Structure formats: C-alpha cells, structure tokens
C-alpha cells in the first residue's frame, strides 16, 4: 500500500473511532494497492496532512481490506475522498486533483477560510 506520509491507515474495525468520533474534520481517502491515481494523490495528501494538521486529520482506508466501510459509503471508484465533520460525510470528491484545488474544494466544507 502506498501510504501518504503523515496519514494513518484505518480499517473497518477502527473507522468509527478514528473518523466518526474524531474531534477534527477527517479527510478519508478510499484507496487500493492497484490504484495508479491513488499513488499520484499520495504526495498531495502528505502535504495537506502536514500543512493542515491542526485543522484536519487525513486518513486512508484500503477498499480491498475494508469492504464494509467502502460499501457503507457507496464508494465505487478509487481514489474517492470523503470529508467527515462531526461523524457525518459532508463532501465527496472522486479522482486526483492538485493540492491547491483540493484545498479550495474542501475549505467550505471544513468550515474554515483558506
């Protein structure tokens, strides 16, 4: 698994604790080993995880090893990014985008000005 530096891997078993009960908004990347675009997104997520650590938690979940969560949130493509706030998904994005565009798309849903 290509893991973005500064991000944690979550699973079906700890998703509720790590994402739904988190104090900060959580950006979840649904990813897979075989996903080329996911590898392209890894450095973007690493940068965001480092720069936004006080405002945003960034995690990754493998769609192949955590099918329950993948099905629960109707994830059909990788990479899919879901932003959770107060335990609820508030934004869904599919595909790769540059850091600046991703931050702009997330800023309104995070409830912060960027």
Summarize the structure.
InterPro entries: Thioredoxin, Thioredoxin-like_sf, Thioredoxin_CS, Thioredoxin_domain. This protein has 114 residues and is an alpha/beta fold. 35% of the residues lie in helices and 25% in strands.
Helix content: 25-40%
Count, helices? 4
| Widest sheet: strand ordering | 1-3-2-4-5
Count of beta strands? 5
Question: Average pLDDT value?
Answer: 93
Q: Which structural class do you get from the secondary structure elements?
A: alpha/beta
Distance between termini?
30 Å
pLDDT below 50 for ≥5 consecutive residues: which ranges?
none
Inertia-based shape: globular
Largest sheet: 5 strands, mixed
β-strand percent reads 15-25%
- Helix and strand run: EHEHEHEEH
Description:
- Keywords: Disulfide bond, Electron transport, Redox-active center, Transport.
- Residues 1-112 form the Thioredoxin domain.
- Belongs to the thioredoxin family.
- The chain is an alpha/beta fold and 114 residues long.
- 35% of the residues lie in helices and 25% in strands.
- The chain has a five-stranded mixed sheet.
Topology diagram in text:
Layout (H helix, E strand, L loop, with lengths): L7 E3 L4 H6 L5 E6 L4 H16 L5 E6 L4 H6 L7 E6 L2 E7 L4 H12 L4
Parallel strand pairs: 1-3, 2-3
Antiparallel strand pairs: 2-4, 4-5
């Amino acid at each position: 698994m290509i893991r973005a530096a500064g991000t944690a891997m979550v699973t079906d078993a700890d998703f509720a604790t790590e994402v739904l009960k988190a104090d900060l908004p959580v950006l979840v990347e649904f990813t897979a080993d075989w996903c080329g675009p996911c590898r392209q997104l890894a450095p973007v997520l690493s940068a965001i995880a480092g720069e936004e650590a006080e405002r945003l938690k960034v995690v990754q979940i493998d769609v192949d090893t955590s099918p329950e969560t993948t099905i629960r949130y109707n994830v059909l493509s990788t990479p899919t990014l879901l932003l959770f706030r107060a335990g609820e998904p508030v934004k869904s994005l599919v595909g790769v985008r540059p850091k600046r565009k991703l931050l702009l798309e997330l800023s309104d849903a995070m409830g912060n000005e960027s």
